[in-house]
């Protein structure tokens, strides 16, 4: 949105919502002044929620002893390849340390019930974790990965289905997309993992929507990702689309993109590949695609 004079001359004092990106949050405050932003986290079927009353950019809220007394929750270790919580040799789940990403689970009891999904018993049971820390306990699996810092602020990291592993490391799609959309020619970025034959894990791929009257600057794109992301998180493949597909709840659609992969023979959208030998993104031709599949092109 174009800047206008007098943008700080308004009577808005409070904004409440969820899912705002850090860069948007900062730009909003810079342009519109000291508006109090309350970012929150929650789900209609869930039994836990957080709200950031302090204005800490990026956080969904802050926890303390009394909050956990009324709404007991934990962040536990998660195996992204097996797509399940990690259990130790005794069969119990383990909590992550502060600063580490973990699956958010919320205790289910009389004070914090989980009523489930109407008419869908199987889906309801799938959301519950039993025997988590001790015999007989029951927790709601939120399906969300979060991080708690040393000041007890909580940050949404990713959905468990969206996070993927590459070169032995966990890649958070939200972190990668946040870095990409900082570029002034990018309107939106949808990041996901794609399978590559004879390689463990999934390679990063980003579907991009360009802002109106702009063009893709591959040089800037390369510089941006290698500067702000660890090497394992840099998207190996780029796909430029005219329109971003959304789900019924206005979230980015990933499943079809994952299935289509990075094959230029079946995808009509422009595709690019991160060629480390050239330190640049190059056009992903059929020849390059074949070299990747045959192992001649190093990833």
Automatic annotation (TrEMBL):
One function term, GO molecular function aspect: long-chain fatty acid-CoA ligase activity
Source organism, top-level taxon: Eukaryota
Signal peptide limits: none
GO biological process, any: long-chain fatty acid import into cell
Catalytically driven reaction(s): a very long-chain fatty acid + ATP + CoA = a very long-chain fatty acyl-CoA + AMP + diphosphate; tetracosanoate + ATP + CoA = tetracosanoyl-CoA + AMP + diphosphate
Enzyme class (EC, first level): ligase
Keywords: Fatty acid metabolism, Ligase, Lipid metabolism, Lipid transport, Transport
Domain AMP-binding enzyme C-terminal: 175-251
A family per Pfam: AMP-binding_C
E.C. code: 6.2.1.3
Keyword Lipid metabolism: yes
Gene3D superfamilies: 3.30.300.30, N-terminal domain of ligase-like
Keyword Ligase appears in the UniProt entry: yes
GO cellular component, one term: endoplasmic reticulum membrane
UniProt record similarity statement: Belongs to the ATP-dependent AMP-binding enzyme family.
Name recorded for this polypeptide: long-chain-fatty-acid--CoA ligase
UniProt organism field: Accipiter nisus (Eurasian sparrowhawk)
